Amino acid sequence: MSRNGLISSLRRLINDEEPLETRSPSPFEQLRPRMNDIIGDGGILKEVVQPGDGPPVPENASVLIHYSGFLEYSDQPFETTTHLKYPRMMKLGRDVTLAGLELGLLTMKKGEFSRFLLQPQYAYGEMGCPPFIPAAAVVLYEVQILDYLDSGQVDDFITMSVEQQNTVPMSTLLEVVNTLRSFGNRFFNQNRYYNAKDRYKQVHFEAMTLLGNRETQSDLEKERIKTALLPLYLNISLAELRLERPHKALKYGNKALEIDSANTKALFRCGQAYLELHEYASAQCCLTSAQAQKPFDSDINNLLRKVTMCYKDSLDKEKDLYSKMFRELKGSVKM
């Protein structure tokens, strides 16, 4: 999909040698007929280049986007995120500072790529933003929605008292918990464990607190809460392993096993933690149980082989140590 080449391709259509009265339309003027007026006053025009899926971005959501801003007749963007592998999550109403861009985002769906032509009152105003944006500049933004999370719903829920939260349907609570978990997973998937560890753990602990505060009325609700807690425990256990904290990893792995004693991920996490702690017998026990559930899982089998070798080496070293101690003791008795 062409992005930065848009202005260049439009400029080639303009004949700069033509008299002023017969001059071809400017690049932005050529775009306007292809665009829709999304608010009715001509201040924000939109062209959908690639449609998205699902519902549009909700108000106060947190969005993950790639975007580039262009001035007319400029081939290079004055700002862009397209060079970033992991653009930061931006909260509507806080991090998106252009009114036109925020209003445009609210019309977009996940996966959508669109162009927005913003008049000055919806962009940088009559003053512009020297030295990059001239006064009263019309700007073009190309935006792709990579993902979004309904963080507005989370914000509203967390500001409630515990009593109010307990009056909300269980389905809403679980939606909030899943959104929080999605935030944590995004940090984790970017492999920024140390930079994001506090936020990653914070959102998971927030989710666990919300679930713990719930006054359950039935066995079914209790089971639904346990089901929601299980992936939270597994995620934190894995994060602690990556942060080289096997004791904490084991703590949350065991919490997961309290909910589902045959869960292979929990058994595997505990096996990894015990291996790091050099508790080979316990590691072997967990991994053997996991192998019984998934006998052909290569990760389980490979780790079990590693544990078995480490356990054997440990026993051999222990045997040699005791033999040495016995020889020294025997020698001292003879003397």
What keyword list fits this structure?
single chain, 335 residues, alpha+beta, seven-stranded antiparallel β-sheet, two-stranded antiparallel sheet, 12 helices, 52% helix, elongated, TPR-like_helical_dom_sf, peptidyl-prolyl cis-trans isomerase activity, EC 5.2.1.8, repeat
Give a structural overview.
Belongs to the FKBP6 family. GO terms for molecular function: Hsp90 protein binding; peptidyl-prolyl cis-trans isomerase activity. A hairpin with a 7-residue loop joins strand 4 (62-71) and strand 5 (79-80). The radius of gyration is 29 Å and the shape is elongated. It has helices at residues 5-11, 27-31, 99-105, 151-158, 162-165, 170-189, 193-213, 219-242, 246-259, 264-276, 280-293, 298-334, and strands spanning 36-37, 44-50, 53-56, 62-71, 79-80, 90-91, 109-110, 113-118, 139-149. The strands form two sheets. Strands 1, 2, 4, 5, 6, 8 and 9 form a seven-stranded antiparallel beta sheet that branches. A two-stranded antiparallel sheet has the order 3-7. The protein has 335 residues and is α+β, with helices and mostly antiparallel strands.
